[in-house]
Amino acid sequence: MRDEARCATFDTPLGRCGIAWTNRGVAAIHLLGDRDGDARAWVRRFGEAEGEPPPPVREAMAAIVLHLERGDRDLSGIPLDWEGIPPFHRRVYEAARALPPGATTSYGALAARIGAPGAARAVGQALAANRFLLAVPCHRILAASGRLGGFSASGGLVTKLRLLALERDAAEAGPLAFDPEAAVAHLRRDPAMAALIDAAGPFRLRRRGARDVFDALAHSIVHQQISGRAAAAIYARLAASFPDGHLGLEPRRLLRACADTFRRAGLSGPKTEALRALARAAVEGALPSFDELRAMDDEVIVERLRGLRGIGRWTVEMLLMFRLGRPDVWPVDDLGVRKGYAIAHGLAQTPTPAELAALGERYRPYRSVAAWYFWRAVELGGRLRAA
Fold first, then answer.
1. 49/101 same-domain check
2. Interval 55-85: pLDDT, tens
3. Which of 46, 71, 135, 272 would be a feasible disulfide site paired with 262, CB 3.0-4.6 Å?
4. Is residue 246 domain-shared with residue 342, that is, in the same domain?
5. Contact by Cβ (8 Å): 58, 66
6. What is the pLDDT of residues 327-338, one digit of tens each?
7. Which uninterrupted H or E stretch holds 157?
8. Is the distance from CB of 159 to CB of 14 less than 8 angstroms?
9. 191 burial level (CB within 10 Å; 0-12, 13-18, 19+)
């Protein structure tokens, strides 16, 4: 494989990804993270034979990027180069490829599926040698106890849980509570917003799933005042501490956890206490269900939940946008939304929350969509200004 393989690296929502190919198909896929040294070392494994990907490989790269953004792409059709793969390993890999996004199984169940009951350890060894990450979704195979097991990509178990959570969200996602096309057409009346929409592309926000309201609010608490990528890693480390953590956080398990569990995940003392307080509220029955929330107006939900420890207006607004799919949420305290507004409108100063509240009136009744695009403006940064 080494003499004839070519390889390339490309950006994904989970960092750099490496892909190698031969004339027989894709020979290897690996998540490399954000460290340049890791990417260079991976390339060197193939003799530094970088090349221009042919169309089938470019299609595979595009599908991987979309999957790591949305969690709903079927990558089982990526053509693979099976040269050098032992027959038992190939049987394991092909059985793993049959698992759709959002599904999981155990090592023992996968062994039984290929007609080798009792060979769970051998299945684990085969998956540990998997060189086709994502195309052969070994992250969907768990220990019988519900623990995550191993994972060889950059980030290890944290990356495995993030992949599982992404796919779970996609599988459980429901429709938004409004028509996205009508919302975008309404926003285009503002010339600056129209330019941003053209630069950022189609509106891609989807209503995410969650184990329950507790899990959704816990997720938002972890995300308070830090970057989305850092928060995702912290949440994943915390969830990975528990059996079935890929399904979300469970309040009773959280209450039984020791302080070191939170500290190792990277949570601050105040966030740990906020999560514990939220768990107690859930156990005591103080949290409404999603069905109850769907029958409430936005402001009623804000007032119902913001009195809980660690739950402020922004946290409830994230619940309204991402879990309930509400159309007219305007998170003026979110620095990213304020910065994005300034970038899109060419302002030298970022508007204050009070100023943004007034500026957002033009976007009613679709301020959630406007906020989503202003987050994209921050990602585009100078590229949007240059355009």
1. no
2. 999 999 999 999 998 888 999 999 999 999 9
3. 272
4. no
5. no
6. 999 999 999 999
7. helix 157-172
8. yes
9. exposed
Does residue 114 sit within a domain?
yes
Cα 150 to Cα 285: distance, rounded to the nearest angstrom = 36
Phi, psi angles (nearest 5°) of residue 305: -100, -25
Measured distance CA(89)–CA(70) in Å, rounded: 29
Q: For position 91, what pLDDT does the model report?
A: 97
Pairwise CA distance, residues 170 & 352, whole Å: 34
Annotated active-site positions, please?
138
Please, which residues have CB within 8 angstroms of residue 41's CB and are 6 or more apart in sequence?
none
Residue range of the domain that includes 317: 214-323
Co-location of 200 and 349 in the same domain: yes
Give the model's pLDDT for residue 1: 43
Same domain, 62 and 135: no
Q: Which amino acid, one-letter code, is at 218?
A: A
Q: Which of 234, 226, 284 is nearest to 255 (CA)?
A: 284
The closest alpha carbon to 95, from 119, 72, 59, belongs to 119
Answer whether residue 78 is part of any domain.
no
Question: Domain holding 358: CATH number?
Answer: 1.10.1670.40
Is residue 171 in a domain?
A: no
pTM of the model: 0.76
